[in-house]
Design goal:
The structure holds 2 protein chains of 2 kinds. Chain A is α/β, with parallel strands linked by helices. Chain A is built from 16 helices and 19 strands. The N and C termini of chain A lie far apart (51 Å). Chain B has a 7-stranded mixed sheet. The chains are: A alpha/beta, B alpha/beta.
Chain lengths: 482, 200
C-alpha cells in the first residue's frame, strides 16, 4: 500500500471520504477543471439498448468487460421468468437486446432464470461487486444506492453509458460536499426510509444539487446495510449527485464471503485500504446540516415530489398558508392531482393498492419488516397488495424463512419474479387512473406508477400497515404478532 | 452533433418547480428507438394530451405561438429525477435547442451537453423577470449568444450566464467528448497499469 502512504504524506490536510475516492480514480484533469475518472464497476440493465447501439455504430468495443455487470430489471414481468411471456414486443425487445449485447461483448450477465438476477441496485451489493472506495456508475439515477458501502456511485445518461463502455472512464467536474449528521437514536419501527424522507423534506428536492452527500452520526451508524442502502438510494431525490456512508464493521461483515468480494490475502489488503476511507477528523465540507434522529417520525409523502413528506400524524397542508404565490399555485395543482383536501389527516387516506418492492426497499430486511406487520392479519377488503422481491436470491431467502406464506395468508400477492415492477411501470405493471398507492419505491411523481395514479411513499412496514388498515397508518400502533 | 452558437427563437414558459423527467417523457415510452423519429411526439405526453390522445388546450405547448418554440424556460430543479436521456431527445426532436432555468437536475444537464441542447442557468430573479415578460409579450423572442455567454430577453435587456468551459466547447464545435477521450487512450492505459498494481 505504498500508494496510500505516499498520498498521505502529500496530503497534510484532513480529507473527506469523497475526496479520497475521487483522487484515487483521477486519470487526468484538464485546466478547466474537467476530470477524467476511472470507473471500477459499470452496472448495466435492460434500458441500455441505445447505448450499445451507439457503441456498435461507432465501431467500438467494450473496453473492460470484466468490470461490467448486467441484469434485466426494468422490463421483466413480476409474474414470470419467461421472456416470451412479455406481451409487448418493444418491451420484450429491451430484455432480448440486453441478452444479445451481453453475449456479444462478453460482459457478465445475471439473466432471467438465474437466481442472481434482480434489480441492478440489489444485485450489485448482493454479489459483493460493490466495495468500499469504489467508483461505480450505471445508466440509472438510483445508482446513488451503492454509496452505502463508502463508495462513490452515481447515475449517468445513455451517452455517458456509451462513453464508459468504450473507455471505462467519464468526465466529471468535482462536485461540492455536504455532510448530513443525524445523531440521536431512531424510534422503534423507524428505518433508513423514514430518515431519508425526513432529510429530503428538510433540505428540498434540490437541496443537494451539485453535491455529494455524506451521511454521518450515531443514527446512521446504527442503521443496517439494508437501511443505509435505502438511505443512499434516495440521495438523488434530494438532487444530490451521490450519497455515502463511511464503511465500518457492518459493511465488512456484509461483504465478507460474497461471490465477488476479495478473498484471503486480497481481503486483508482491501481491508487496510477500506479502513482508511472514512473522512478524517476535521475534514471540511462545503455544507453541513444536522437533524435529530430521535425526533424523526414515520414519514409519508402527500404530494408529487419526494420533498412533500410529513410525519404520519400530520394533516394535508393548506396552500393558503403558503406565503409564496408560486408555491401556493404549485401546491394547489399538487393537491388537485392527488385528490386531497387541506386539513385531512394523512392517516385517514384510503388506499387502493400497496406496492412493496423497488431498488429502495425490496431487500430481505424490508420483506421481514413488512411480514412482521402482515403476520396473522388480513389485507383490507378492496386493496390489492403486491410484494416484489429485489432479486431471485432474496426471493429464495424469504421463502426459506416462510415470509411468502405469511404474505399469502394475509392476502398479499407474492410475486414470482424480481424486478423494478410497479416502481415505474416500464414493464407495463401500473395502477389505474385515480388509484391511491402506498408504495415503498422512491418517486411520487405525477404519473410515475401510471397516468393519474397517486403515489404515497413510505417504509415497507408502513406500507404493510396501510395494506392491513386500508388507509395510511402509523406502524407504531401495530403490535407485532408472535 | 450540430454546433450551437447563436439562437433567436420563441421561448416557452413552463412555470413548474421540480419538473421531473417523467413529465418530459413518461416511462412507458422509454422502449422506443429514437431512430424511429417519434420521440418528439411524446414530449410532455400526459401534460400535452388526454388519455385518448386529444390535445389539452390549457397546456402551453398547445398554444400559439409556443408550438414552434425552440427555447424552454423552466423553474428551479428543471429535469430532476430519472437519468433518462430520452427526456433530452424528446425536447430536441420536437425542436427545442435550449433550456433556461434557475437550476437543473445534474444528470439532465449533463445529458443536454451530449445532445446539442444548451442548458442556461440564470439567477432566480432573472428567470422570474423573463416569465413576467412572457405575460406582457406572449411569444416575445429570446436570443442566446453562446460564445459571448449572453441571453437577451424580449425587452432587450442582456443577461450573462456561466457555463462549463468543456461543455461549451463541445456545443460550439458540435463535437462529442467520446471522440476526444479516445485520443487519450494511452493515458487511460497508463492509469490502468498503475491502478491495477495497487488494487490487484
Amino acid at each position: 500500500m505504498t500508494d496510500r502512504q505516499g498520498s498521505q504524506a502529500l496530503r497534510p490536510d484532513p480529507s473527506t471520504m469523497f475526496a479520497k475516492i475521487w483522487d484515487r480514480h483521477r486519470v487526468l484533469e484538464r485546466p478547466d477543471g474537467q476530470t477524467l475518472l476511472y470507473a471500477d464497476t459499470h452496472l448495466v440493465h435492460d434500458g441500455t439498448a441505445a447505448a450499445f447501439k451507439r457503441l456498435k455504430k461507432r465501431g467500438l468495443k467494450v473496453h473492460a468487460p470484466s468490470r461490467t455487470f448486467a441484469t434485466p430489471d426494468h422490463y421483466v414481468l413480476s409474474s414470470t421468468k419467461l421472456i416470451d411471456a412479455i406481451p409487448n414486443p418493444e418491451k420484450r425487445g429491451m430484455v432480448e437486446k440486453l441478452l444479445a449485447n451481453a453475449a456479444e461483448t462478453g460482459i457478465t450477465l445475471f439473466g432471467l432464470g438465474d437466481p442472481r438476477q434482480g434489480i441492478v441496485h440489489v444485485v450489485g451489493p448482493e454479489e459483493g461487486i460493490i466495495q468500499p472506495g469504489n467508483l461505480i456508475v450505471c445508466g440509472d439515477s438510483h445508482t446513488s444506492t451503492h454509496g452505502a458501502f463508502g463508495a462513490l456511485a452515481f447515475g449517468i445518461g445513455s451517452s455517458e453509458v456509451t462513453h464508459v463502455l468504450a473507455t471505462q472512464t467519464l468526465w466529471q467536474r468535482k462536485p461540492k460536499t455536504m455532510r448530513i449528521t443525524i445523531d440521536g437514536k431512531l424510534g422503534t419501527g423507524l428505518t433508513g426510509k423514514d430518515v431519508i424522507l425526513a432529510i429530503i423534506a428538510a433540505i428540498g428536492a434540490a437541496g443537494g444539487t451539485g453535491h455529494v452527500l455524506e451521511y454521518a452520526g450515531a443514527a446512521i451508524s446504527a442503521l443496517s446495510m439494508e437501511g443505509r442502502l435505502s438511505l443512499c438510494n434516495m440521495s438523488i431525490e434530494a438532487g444530490a449527485r451521490a450519497g455515502m456512508v463511511a464503511p465500518d464493521d457492518k459493511t465488512f461483515e456484509y461483504l465478507h464471503g460474497r461471490a465477488y468480494a476479495p478473498k484471503d490475502a486480497a481481503w486483508d489488503a482491501a481491508m487496510e485500504m477500506w479502513r482508511a476511507l472514512p473522512s478524517d477528523e476535521g475534514a471540511a465540507f462545503d455544507a453541513e446540516i444536522s437533524l435529530d434522529g430521535a425526533a424523526i417520525e414515520p414519514m409519508v409523502t402527500w404530494g408529487t415530489s419526494p420533498e412533500d413528506a410529513l410525519p404520519i400524524g400530520a394533516a394535508v397542508p393548506d396552500p393558503d398558508g403558503q406565503a409564496d404565490a408560486d408555491r401556493r399555485e404549485s401546491m394547489r395543482r399538487t393537491l388537485d392531482y392527488m385528490g386531497l383536501t387541506p386539513g385531512t389527516r394523512l392517516a385517514e387516506l384510503k388506499v387502493d393498492r400497496v406496492f412493496i418492492g423497488s431498488c429502495t426497499n425490496s431487500r430481505i430486511e424490508d420483506l421481514r419488516a413488512a411480514a412482521l406487520i402482515a403476520r396473522g392479519r388480513k389485507v383490507a377488503e378492496g386493496v390489492t397488495a403486491w410484494v416484489v422481491p429485489g432479486s431471485g436470491l432474496i426471493k429464495q431467502q424469504a421463502e426459506r424463512e416462510g415470509l411468502d406464506k405469511v404474505f399469502s395468508a394475509a392476502g398479499f400477492e407474492w410475486r414470482a419474479q424480481a424486478g423494478c415492477s410497479m416502481c415505474l411501470g416500464t414493464n407495463g405493471e401500473i395502477g389505474a387512473p385515480g388509484e391511491r398507492i402506498a408504495s415503498t419505491s422512491n418517486r411520487n411523481f405525477v404519473g410515475r406508477q401510471g397516468p393519474g395514479v397517486r403515489t404515497h411513499l413510505m417504509s415497507p412496514a408502513m406500507a404493510a400497515a396501510a395494506a392491513i388498515s386500508g388507509r395510511l397508518a402509523d406502524v407504531r400502533r401495530f403490535e407485532v404478532m408472535p | 452533433m450540430t454546433p450551437f452558437t447563436h439562437l433567436a427563437a420563441v421561448a416557452m414558459p413552463l412555470a413548474r418547480p421540480n419538473l421531473d423527467t417523467d413529465q418530459i417523457i413518461p416511462s412507458r415510452f422509454l422502449s422506443r428507438d429514437r431512430d424511429d423519429g417519434t420521440m418528439g411526439e411524446v414530449l410532455f405526453r400526459d401534460l400535452r394530451f388526454t388519455a385518448e390522445g386529444g390535445e389539452r388546450p390549457e397546456f402551453v405547448l398547445n398554444q400559439e405561438p409556443y408550438r414552434t418554440a425552440k427555447i424552454i424556460v423552466g423553474e428551479r430543479n428543471f429535469g430532476c429525477g430519472s437519468s433518462r436521456e430520452a427526456a433530452v431527445w424528446a425536447l430536441y426532436d420536437y425542436g427545442f435547442r435550449a433550456a433556461i432555468a434557475p437550476s437543473f437536475g445534474d444528470i439532465f444537464r449533463n445529458n443536454c451537453f451530449k445532445n446539442g441542447l444548451l442548458p442556461v442557468v440564470l439567477p432566480r430573479e432573472a428567470v422570474e423577470t423573463l416569465m413576467a415578460q412572457f405575460q406582457a409579450m406572449p411569444g416575445g423572442a429570446v436570443s442566446i449568444d453562446l460564445p459571448a455567454q449572453i441571453v437577451t430577453f424580449p425587452d432587450g435587456a442582456t443577461h450573462e450566464f456561466d457555463i462549463d468551459p468543456f461543455g461549451k466547447e463541445c456545443l460550439v464545435n458540435g463535437v462529442d467528448e467520446l471522440g476526444y477521450t479516445l485520443t487519450l487512450r494511452d493515458q487511460i492505459a497508463a492509469f490502468e497499469n498503475r491502478y491495477g498494481r495497487t488494487n490487484a
